[in-house]
Amino acid sequence: SSIIHAALRGSQTINSLCDQARNGTIEFKVEGDNRSALTIADTSAQRVIVSSLLGAYPDLNIVGEEDESVEVDEESRMSLRDDLLDGYTWVTAGDRTADVDEPPSELDMKDLVVFVDPLDGTREFVEGRLNAVQSLIGVCYKGKPLMGALGLPFPSEPSPSKPQAVFGLIGRGVGKLQIVHDESSIEACELHDPRHYCDGDTVNISSGDSSSIQRYLDLAEDLIAGKVERQVVGATGNKILCVALGDSTISMIHTKTSLWDTAAPTTVLEALGGKVTDYFGNPLVYDAERELGNKFGVIASVAGAAKLHDELTKALRGDEESLSFLAKYGLNPNPSTEQCIDIARDLDGFPLTKDYLARSLGVSESDVDSYQCPENESVRGLMSNACRIHLEPGDSTAFYKRIEFASLSHARAKMKSAPHKLIRDVKSYRVESSFLASKACESVIEKAGLRIPRCFDANLRPNDTEPIQSKFSVLLEDFSPSAGWSQRWLLQDEDECRATLTTFAKLHAFFWAGSSFWSDKEAAKELKDGVWESASYTQPQLQTLNQCKDVAKGWASSRLKCQAELETLPFWDNLGERLESTAEEVGRLAHPFADSELANEYAKFRTFTHGDPKQANLFFRGSHDDLEVGLIDFQWAGFGLAATDVAHFMTAAVYADVLIGDGEMKLLTHYYDCLV
Q: Buried-most residue among 308, 473, 573, 613 (CB within 10 A)?
């Protein structure tokens, strides 16, 4: 309520000073550029907004556009109402906002930043295009827009002379209020039902009239199949508001806007199911300590146009001129192919730098001119994204894995449908990052000769209070094709099966209870604290609740998939019931360290296990006696039984024909001989 009222106060100030400001002395931050004009309306509106907000909330962190210090001016301070939303009916976009998070119930002031642009659309104001002018107040929480108010000093309807405010709250909806007679009389006014895009609709692309944006508009028009119309729309806030309300489908905005231009209107658009990113598909970074400018441009799209939005940002990741914005970070200014620069970002959202990569890999910074991160070598998964990074000149590569749960739709869906799984997944990435960066991992690589990716850098930001806000990144040694590494679908070669079991035997033996590793108390404690107490992706407590009681139902719905292979066997009809009758007890015995009674009984067999030894987590290099096996993906690693790891490998990574007859026993005997 206070934010909305402050925006109305700022708008009223601009409205009342309009003639004086436009006819009086106008300063220009950049001589002759109307976009840089500074009038009495700008400074007066900022003083009113900032003084009123700080008067009500003295500890509020406010970042304003104008250069004057952000302080309370008692003459400009006005009391703000806290009851404007009492009983208010929000406008929502229905199921189009189903993927939008609920607003937090409590806010920590230290994580809150308010961005103020007292008069957005200065050029429009000076040139008399007043309906594009806005007074913007955007509230960001933990680096993301949460709530915003767009004051409209000169609305065209229904009351041209009285200011209005359009506002949005992520997870709640949008609304509109207006001053009726004087500032003490404020009431709701109609906000027309926001339109959304449907396939086949005309695509209205808005932008300013700057020549610098034209080539991007051409690229967008060439990319979009169907009817396209261009619109010239002034002022950043106005552009994004037009998208939010469906008057434009997409807006492409130049690279010279700032966070105070985009924070407030972004909340309105996203509250209605729309999307705002930079040119490359990343959310805008609201970190006032590092960068205030939206240096990589802005693209806004209406609800329903996410596919168009993503296609456009993908095209820009392959556009040399667009990628040139990233040259100062070290990206090759003339890349050979499309770049996944949206993945090659740190956890704050800024592009990785060549200096960071060089330092992390132990390469002299002076020897690295640039890097590339080809899209065709990236991995975009449900729960993580990753890419291969090439340092230039030379052939050094690294593998960068980045997990930002809030940006993953699959993770957001889990937060609502299966929150216990989201908590589990957050811990799994903490486990993986902790293990790869641990002394234990370094030790097993050096002393047992295992091929596990060396960890050059790890950044862990788990959030136990709000798991969806957790973030992780690791920079790893790269098992690349150029270095001779490859993967298989299922293992059909006996040599590869034996080599893999040899690798697991070395891993299990190295960490077996009583081994020399445990004499290093510091490394042992680090390992215990960092991994699963009871490991394995199949560990019942880490899976769907009561899944062991749904086996018969699952078999009934799935058995037709293997009818030809199994219907002649005697257990065809009741296999599901038979499995269900024993599943819970077998799961308990296979993972004894999740059970306090069994843990002591099985203590002498306790070792560190991979936890998910499927074929996708195995790499191979060489052949026969020189065959090397690389292990990746330690999300489910921790303490367990070696036999459970081996059984998982046999059922998830080995082609069935290798196991028939005495094939399985030969492999088990090989593993046991290697272990002892």
A: 613
625 confidence band (pLDDT: 50, 70, 90): confident
Task: Answer whether 321's CB lies under 8 Å from 358's CB.
Answer: no
Backbone phi, then psi, for 611, in 5-degree steps? 95, -20
Closest alpha carbon to 50 in 236, 260, 270: 260
Amino acid at 491: L
Do 664 and 651 touch, CB atoms closer than 8 A?
no
From the list 388, 390, 408, the residue with the least C-alpha distance to 400 is 388
Name the H helices within 37-172. 40-56, 122-127
Would you state the structure tokens that stand for residue 655, as one six-digit string? Answer: 């082609």
Instruction: Name the residue with tokens 């957790």.
Output: 470
DSSP letter for 451, please: B
Q: Residue 485 corresponds to which tokens in the numbers above?
A: 């590494």
| Structure-derived torsion over alpha carbons of residues 213, 216, 222, 225, reported in degrees to the nearest 10 | -90
Expressed in angstroms, the distance from the first to the final Cα of the chain is 71
Which residues, in sequence order, are CB contacts of 504 under 8 Å at separation 6+? 610, 613, 642, 645, 646, 649, 671
Q: Residue 204 pairs with which residues in a beta bridge?
A: 229
Element (H, E) at 402: strand 397-404
Q: Write out the DSSP string of 302-347.
A: -TT-HHHHHHHHHHHTT-HHHHGGGGGGTB-SS-SS-B-TTTSB-T
Give the span between the Cα atoms of 607 and 511, in whole angstroms.
5
Name 175's bridge partners.
167
Task: List the one residue out of 12, 7, 10, 2 whose CA is nearest residue 182.
Answer: 12
Average pLDDT score, the chain = 90
Measured distance CA(635)–CA(173) in Å, rounded: 37
Rounded to whole angstroms, the Cα distance separating 133 from 136 reads 10
Give the whole-angstrom CA distance, residue 85 versus residue 88.
5
pTM value > 0.70? yes
For residue range 67-114, list pLDDT tens digits in order. 555 566 666 677 888 999 999 999 887 655 545 667 777 888 888 999
Structure tokens at 34: 């109307």
* Contacts of residue 217, Cβ cutoff 8 Å, sequence gap at least 6: 205, 207, 230, 252
Q: What length is written for the chain?
A: 676
Amino acid at the residue 280: F
Give the whole-angstrom CA distance, residue 561 versus residue 563: 6
Res 117: pLDDT: 94
Rounded Cα distance, 126 and 587, in Å: 73
The predicted-structure confidence for 579-595, as pLDDT tens digits, reads as follows: 999 999 999 999 999 99
User: What span, in angstroms and rounded, lies between the C-alpha atoms of 554 and 547?
Assistant: 9
d(CA 204, CA 218): 13
